[in-house]
Amino acid sequence: MSSLALPKYWQVAQTQLMKSDRILRRIIPLHGNQGLTVAEPPFVTLVRAIMAQQASRQTALSQWQRFSACYGEHPSPQKIAILSDDCLRQIGLPKRKAEYIIEVSTHFVNGHINMDHLSSLDDEQVIQSLCEIRGVGRWTAEMFLIFNLRRADVLPLDDAALLKAISKHYFSGEPVSRFEAREVAQAWAPWCTVATWHLWRSLNAVAVHY
Questions:
Q1: b (16+ CB within 10 A) / e for 50-67
Q2: Which of 78, 95, 112, 198 could pair with 107 as two cysteines, CB 3.0-4.6 Å apart?
Q3: pLDDT in tens, 105-136
Q4: pTM (predicted TM-score)
């Protein structure tokens, strides 16, 4: 991936994280020229994050592949909003996720999700705004902050893969609590997004992306 696709803060963040955290000093150089890709359209980011809720990476990817085969890789909210949830269930989506995706598409169509407005908000305000939508919780909103708005300091403590990576690298595989994960992450601010990405990458040959 070209470094031109990386957020402007990425390389500075990597340098500072390697100075402040001995684990990341070892992990970051393994994929130091990689990072967040160019953002997909906002609607696609939310759809993919909803598919990934409480699902394995492979399950979410399979659902997305079936969805995009039917409706395109960059479907418009207008195209999805007119569907019934039964249409999405026919391609293998669970009932609740089908309902949530149609709900999100309706919010885009009605202008309730306005990117100019969201981009002007701080991270917590974005989370609060998105969590007003049925089917969007804090984790989903945090994925939007990371993968679409590409914010630098997002720490998704409800993310199972992040907790697994922290367990592996900082606690010798012992289970960790959200409190313990937050304690570890104090050394990462204000670059928690970059630290999180590299810890995800340390578990999988293909980093998570939505």
A1: bbbbeeeeeebbebbebb
A2: 112
A3: 999 999 999 999 999 999 999 999 999 999 99
A4: 0.93
